[in-house]
Amino acid sequence: MEGMELVAFNIISNAGTAKSLVMEALYAAREGRYEEAEDKLKESRQYLTEGHKAHHQLIQEEASGNNFTFSLLIMHAEDQMMSVETINDLVKEMIRMYKDIHYLKGEISKNSVVK
């Protein structure tokens, strides 16, 4: 495996790890473990950044005149990356909602709820 395939698998692998970490952040927040949730989100962003770097390589190659043939593998990699971006945004909002719920239940202090 080399070239475009390697880049695609790099994107897919990083996006998959990022997605798993984002979901772990949500599960931690549901249990009120907000520091752990934030750590998971931070770690997921690192993996997503690596996926974006690999994707950027492909864009630079094409911009340099090296056109690629259509690849279902690259299409899948881009889909995975975009899905993680969307899931990340939704999970951030859901964590805020969990904080509000836990505050209203008296389980956390007002200082823990950041708007």
From TrEMBL:
- Required co-factor? Mg(2+)
Q: How is the cofactor bound?
A: Binds 1 Mg(2+) ion per trimer.
Q: Where is the active site?
A: 76
Q: Where is the signal peptide?
A: none
- Where does this protein hold Mg(2+)? 79
Query: GO molecular function terms here?
Result: metal ion binding; transferase activity
Alphabetically sorted, this entry's keywords are: Magnesium, Metal-binding, Phosphotransferase system, Sugar transport, Transferase, Transport
**Protein name per its UniProtKB record:** PTS system, cellobiose-specific IIA component
- Protein's organism: Heyndrickxia sporothermodurans
